[in-house]
User: Fold this.
Amino acid sequence: MGENDKYNTCFGGDITYTSFVGYLQDANVFNFKQNDAFNEITEHIGDLQIQHGKDMYKEICNLQMIDTKTILRLIQMNDTIGNPIKYKIHDDLFECSPNSIKYIYYGLLNIKCILHNQLNSFDFIEIGGGYGGQCIILMELFKIFNIHINKYILIDLKEVVGFQEKYITAHNLQEKCVFLPYEEYIHYHFSDNSYLLSSYALSELITPIRHEYYNNVLKYTQHGLVIWNNPNGIDLNKSYIEISHSCHNIVGSFLQF
Ligand SMILES: C[S@@+](CC[C@H](N)C(=O)[O-])C[C@H]1O[C@@H](n2cnc3c(N)ncnc32)[C@H](O)[C@@H]1O
Assistant:
């Protein structure tokens, strides 16, 4: 593999992480959520995201795990920092980023899996966590559901974990976090029985990098959730079930193991 191959994705061509990484390297943590290069990779904007926001809000309500006041508080946590583009999604909600709703929905799916498997005092690993929004929402959900984690380990490209550290520190939630660059994770000593989350990340990496993670990280994760969006098929090396949902036009599958 060449030095720059790590910026390529499974989609091939010019769909790469290069501009995203270049942008996050120097981005201002209090005003970064409206940039085009950034939005193409993680925040996404437009009518489809409004639809996803509506559908995911409905799924959050169906789960009956948190009340509207808590949903509003979680959205506000993620939307106060970074200046996102906001939309009216539902009468219950003030204008917000659909991505914050996504992080609450996926956060709750993880909580459900953790509670179901009665996990406590474990390391939570997130591969490819974008700017860190999923992490701050999950940290709050862990508190609400009395789940004790030892560490929240974020693995991403070095410039991206550098930014995640700034974002999560701006929320003062960095204490339990380990910011682990992809370029160095191989030397990290993972604990057995760790939990894995990867949403639109592990699945969209190029095959050799994804398989590197299978061999060096997933062998330590007994349970987890992978939001899978690789159009070439699923090669996840776990015995998983697919979570059903009623969201329209969502790319990919929700794989729980
Ligand atoms: C499409 S974004 C998904 C972000 C976030 N999980 C979300 O759902 O909003 C893909 C993420 O994978 C990260 N990524 C790219 N190469 C990676 C690698 N080799 N190891 C870990 N993460 C990587 C990107 O930097 C980005 O954070």
Summary: The chain is about 40% helix and 15% strand.
